[in-house]
Amino acid sequence: MGFTKNKAGVDTPLRTELAKKGVVWTTLDFLYNWGRRSSIWPMQFGLACCAFEMIAAACARYDIARFGAELFRASPRQADLMIISGTVTKKMAPQVVRLYNQMPEPKYALTMGACAISGGPFIDGYNVLRGIDRYIPVDVHLPGCPPRPEALLHGLMELQKKIASQEIQKTAWYQKGLKREFPIPEFGPNGLIPKFNPEVWQPSKENPRREHYGQTILVGKKLKAPDLELAAAPQPAAPGAAA
Amino acid sequence: MKETFNFKNAGNAETLEINFGPQHPSTHGVFRMVVQLNGEKICGLKPVFGYLHRNHEQIAENLPYAAMMPYTDRLDYVNALANNFGYALAIEKLAGLEVPERAEYIRVMMAELARVVNHITVIGFMLNDLGAFFTPLLYAFRERERILDLFEEITGSRLMCNYLRPGGVKRDLTDAHLAAIRAIVTKFPAFLKEFEALLTKNEILCMRCQNIGILPVDAATNAGITGPVLRASGVNYDIRKVDAYSIYNRFDFKIPLGQKGDAYDRYYVRVLEIRESLKILEQALAKIPQGDIVNKKAFPLLKMPRNFKPPVGEAYARIESPKGELGYYLVSDGTPQPWRYHVRAPSLINLTLLEEMCLGQKIADAIIILGSIDIVLGETDR
Question: CA within 20 to 30 Å of B205's CA: A138, A201, B143, B304, which one?
Fold first, then answer.
């Protein structure tokens, strides 16, 4: 387990010597984080297609239990990790943020699949949120459409590395007075209000549409319907009209 | 924003309204229903849709015809290949394309394998809802992974296969692939036997599923319900027989029918359908000819999709997807993009009678009834 640096201040030969005598020399950080990262409880929360790969990862072949994350909890109150597996639509985004708020600290979020990261193939849709990281902080992004179960395991290991690198003294949720509540967006007449949570996410400075952010784009607008009755009357009998 | 759900006897002091979902372990995704209870009995149920509405139809109207194929995978993500099948048929109807013989056999084989995957998954999830948490699903997923391995080898992807093309299929099957399919077909009955020994006469399953959520024939036919849900009520309606699309008239298979139309029948019809699918697969493996896999006339459509302009007209193609009648309606206005694209999603239409099935039942049974209908939210909300 080479996740954290050896900060115990004792060199390796001495440690092995002590270990032979039954003395373990380690830091509290390492021990504590070892416990935390080895029993991540994810939330049982499937949004779309990627949820199937998440279930496959929990089943016998991929067996997420090897990483201590097999206990899918249906309640956010008992979960450490939220796997956002699938497209987040504008109707669903408020509930996702609400569920994230309901999870106890320390909590982590993992976006699974292109849709949850950026909207993915459905980015042009009027009802699809272009990335849940606009409203909640995301720890691991997992690209793919859908990512394979192995990719989910890889994402979980990355999260374990992140957990292992956190120090108890410096981490925000062990400090006094921390209250992390992310504002829940509301469904307004033109999509979600607000468009994003500026504390978490901001449009990039190079974005040419930064000024007009959130306005609708009309693509491929057609105005005239085809006259089907007219087309049906002189039926071209040639079946090979493909070209 | 306050929501109101116009229940019949709203305001009655004895009733209680309960919200299920969209985050609930047994709503199969992000389906939401509001249930009105009197004691433990259900006296009203309103479904709430749209939590996974991802603009499928609007996206299609801005894309070339062939470019929509990968999106159809994401409609019903349990059996992507059946969705491809329907859409390919619709484009072929619109453009007047024919499909080579070998491609037809490959299509039918892939669609039937997808049906097997879908049905075992559904049975696993239905038992999950019943309280047998995860164990039957583990058995089902063990077999599912074997078929998905095959899909990955043939199509390049486990879940989102994107394999069928208008006028044919994307890649040819080698002899090794055919041998792998044959191995699955020969080994599968043993698994089904094991699965059935655990489930079919299981007393708990019988007691919880029999006489639960009975769907009368009249109501089912009036609401346009299709698929295993309709056949469990005893109506012999299978589009593979009625339409005989593709080459289904060449195979000898039966349509399993239920008697009562309860949740148990819906479970058992699916088990029997898996057996019939295996029968079709066996026959297809024996008969598959050599030859082309794509009609050469379809090359302009596939190589230069933006230049493909079908004549003005409309086309509706339907297939028997594992969930019911899956139809694609396309209207062409002579441009590279369709003017209108509509999906007749079986999950959505089968859900319309959920309230009728649940009325008078206990609250715990509503979950089983929902599980036995077999919905996928990607298709329901689109």
Answer: B143
